[in-house]
Amino acid sequence: MSPTQPTSRPGGRSERVRSAVHQAVIDLLSDPDVVELTIPAIAQRAGVNHTSVYRRWGSREALLTDVAITRLEEDWPLPDTGTLRGDLTEWVAAGAATVFKPEGRLLVRAMALSMPGSPQAQAERAQLFARRGGAIERIRERATARGENPPPLDQILDQLIAPLYMRALFGSAPPPPGYPELLVERLLAT
Fold it and tell me: What is the pLDDT of residues 65-91, one digit of tens each?
């Protein structure tokens, strides 16, 4: 490589900082002794300078939103079972498994804490909902191509996603076995 060519750093320092900061957020949210989650506390736990955190995220709310979006999306894949009912059921089951893990519940609650937050946090949440909506749209498009008649996006969000988030925010226990199937059954029966 010549001295004039830039070197590529896949997974370089920036990604290491992001990972360390994300893990610090999770650790601090999980710590019952932490009274207030602040950028300086997060930076100290991550072993980075607080100015790096402010420069990258701008606010605590934007950081919490980024952590929640990243972690929840990593664990919530888009299934393709060959039927609308199967796709929705597996997608809701994966969502429930993700949201009701201790980390998932913390992240949903952290995202709620970050509302309304900074314009950057609001924009990132809008991106999350757009990506979630995009995933559901792909399920709907596949169903339509197979000759199925999927419900509208808003109805899917209201009847499948909202109950999971409400339980994660306010419930004390994960949903009972068969809950994803029950939600999908109710949705498709309307």
Answer: 888 878 877 767 788 999 999 999 999
Of the CA atoms within 13 Å of residue 24, those in its CB half-sphere come to 23
Give the predicted TM-score (pTM) of the model.
0.74
Q: What is the 8-class DSSP label of residue 177? A: T
Secondary structure class of 1 (helix, strand, coil) = coil
Q: What b-and-e string marks burial along 95-133, b requiring 16 or more CB atoms within 10 Å of the CB?
A: bbebbbeebbbbbbbbbeebeebbebbbebbeebeeebb
Q: Cα separation of 168 and 68, whole Å? A: 13
Give the per-residue pLDDT at 127. Answer: 74
- CA-based nearest residue to 77, from 101, 93, 54, 53: 93
Exposed, middle or buried, 35 (CB in 10 Å: 0-12/13-18/19+)?
exposed
